[in-house]
Fold this protein.
Amino acid sequence: MSKEIFIENVKKWVVLEKQLKQLNEHTKDIRQRKQNVTTDICSYMSDNSLHEKKIQISDGYLKYAERKEYSPLTYTYIEGCLNQLIQNEEQVKQIIKYLKDNREVRTCVDIRKNETKQHDNL
């Protein structure tokens, strides 16, 4: 690859990165607004005993649904559970260390944008 193509690729990357940032901010805003409306709809349905009702919309229907959300399996959580099951604190520490040391690790190549005043020039 020539230096000119490299420079063009960097310029394209910067433009694409900016576009993605804008889209992500817009998506985040839409998700938040949707969540607010969802909360209002669910509250109304709950307050008016409409749990079993379906709301017809243009391409299907909406219905009230409950789902369980589980907290993530963190090392802190696992360690707490193991401490309840195993009295030997050293054994628990060894198990946690083993889990941490034997995780699958992948190395990925990427570039990152760091916003600073100074730039390294090629």
